[in-house]
Amino acid sequence: MLLRSLIDLMFPPLCHACKGVIPVADGASPQPLICADCLGQISFLQSPLCTRCGAPFATEHGSDHLCGACLCHQPFHTCRSAAVLEGPLQDLIHRFKYGGKMHLADPLALLAWQRLEGFLREAGPDCVVPVPLHRKRLRQRGYNQSQLLAELFGRKLKVPQVVGNLRRLRWTEPQTGLDAGDRVTNVKGAFGVGDPEALAGKRVLLVDDVFTTGSTLGACVDVLREAEVAAVAAVTVARGIPH
Length: 243
Ligand SMILES: [Zn+2]
Ligand SMILES: [Zn+2]
Fold this sequence. Notes:
Layout: H1 2-10, H2 24-27, H3 36-40, H4 68-72, E1 78-84, H5 87-98, H6 105-123, E2 127-130, H7 135-141, H8 145-157, E3 166-168, H9 180-187, E4 191-193, H10 196-199, E5 203-211, H11 215-226, E6 231-239
Parallel strand pairs: 1-6, 2-5, 5-6
Antiparallel strand pairs: 3-4
């Protein structure tokens, strides 16, 4: 403990978001090493949410319940995200995903873990499965950001991460700039499960960095369901909320 305090005094921890020094008292709290100021600018999602898809309701009152869309057509999977994709969180995710900042995986995953631990433990997954990248994109980026995030969830839940079974079968254009309908079409048939027997009967935690319209997660869930998994809980660090 003393050594830790000395190290913190000599090399104070820096906020991953604003690069400002985190006061030692705050730094003593567990990672993710995001200062109180930046944390204060992150809009964490909170109840009332849809119990199924995790969509936030416009009102701040009341308890969680099914949203209209899930009432009409209840999805196979449940989904939760930690916070809205804006402000310092959007910046962090952008640097993590497009700026080669792989070291941001743990702080971002931890941020989500701290908000969603109850949901993740209740989901009780047997394994963690990251949303895969196409080979070409993986070569360009050098890493799959979802896989790096999923590592922490696997460690915390003490379950293995299964990589390579859920696959991208074909190249898809980036979803950015497409509307909800086009996003569904764009990823239709893009995923497949290589070895369905290995996943059959398993409870799967599906991990991605960002939820926008849910079309990518939905396409993954479709093929996991065909592989006869028992259940899918999906988690993302951030959720884009249409304004
Ligand atoms: Zn900061
Ligand atoms: Zn819903």
